Amino acid sequence: MLDKVWDDHVVRSAPGEPDLLYVDMHLIHEVTSPQAFESLTLSGRRVRRPDLSMATVDHGIPTVGRELGITDPLSKRQIEALEQNCEEHGITLFGVDDLRQGIVHIIGPEQGLTQPGMFIVCGDSHTSTHGAFGALAIGIGTSEVEHVLATQTLPRAKPGSLAVTVDGDLPLGVTAKDVILGIIREIGVNGGHETVIEYRGSTITGLSMAGRMTVCNMSTEAGAVAGMIAPDDTTFAYLEGRPYVPTGALWEEMVAYWETTPSDADAVFDREVVIDTAGLEPFVSWGVNPAQVVEVTGRVPSPDSFDDPLERDSARRALEYMDLEPGTAMTDIGIDRVFFGSCTNARIEDLRAGAEVIQGRTVHPDVGAMVVPGSGLVKLQAEEEGLDRIYKEAGFEWRDAGCSMCLAMNDDILSPGERCASTSNRNYEGRQGRGGRTHLMSPQMAVAAAIAGHLVDVRAWQ
Question: Pick from 275, 109, 105: which is nearest to 181 by CA?
């Protein structure tokens, strides 16, 4: 699949040089674009294909009190710059007051901008999310953002290929988030280095598009350039009728093309890994990278249990930062905050799954919990289904769409020493606030933790 999509987009290839690839869709947000647009202006260039770019505000936008204006000065400047640049260059922007505004990796699929066989780029590391549709989607830096704006192309050396096959029915309580955490635990944070991971097998094909996006989203946490899942009937059913998806005869033509993009039966990969779902349980991170996870029924590991000296040292430093003692049962770890959101787990399916756990329960009095829908449309749909009432009556804060506490911008931030159960994708030191301690988990697990006041095995509730 990587070869097929790559070859379809090469516009120039020369020995000893990276290939030059044509970009089908360039997704833009306010944080990584200002310098790119400024450099474009200083060089006297225009955006080559504004119709193949789409912008939204997500990283710095407030998720509460938005009607009062943006008070954070940096976020305000970034958003105003994006508004000005999009107006000047004729780029469609889902702005502050647009119902379609949301996290860039949620609005792309939601609008049908993300389609199989595409080459998609965005100045954000979690662009791999869009690979769930059989697109090749990679995160790029600010200088590359400028290059795409100016030329609609990107020079890239072709990465290697890694097949990760997951077979079997998901056990009780195990979600797509647990699948990808289990994969990263198996292959490590560098296991996908310089490769595109193709996720295969009955477990993957059995996932909804929301689940597939969760898996591909965290490909970058395994060091991968991108993640991809072959498009199938589930993909086509999700896309049909969305605003930017073709209709009529062109739809039939596109589906016929999309059906040719999956890997051939005899395709050879540079490396293959097989995961058995029988070994998967609800996972929770204990350390400061997404490979440092353990089953919720497990215990905080001892650094001495790691054979590799680098892993041993990493575990020692992680436990010091997380203020955890080896041997502590994961379910004995109390929490202060819960963040339910991010481009990993803030779609309508995630919100429904979390609401099912509540069942009349309320958030623990010592816990502050927030729900941040992935887009304005997700928020609206959740409210039409009554999910907002379920969360608010249980004691959760119901926020507006944005990246929020995933990366600690504006006031959505952990205080030093606070411990958070999070549905996001990264648990690096300081990721959710300087000195904050993050435990990654599924939406169901995070909601259960909010109610219990500590990490719990949600299977006992199900």
Answer: 275
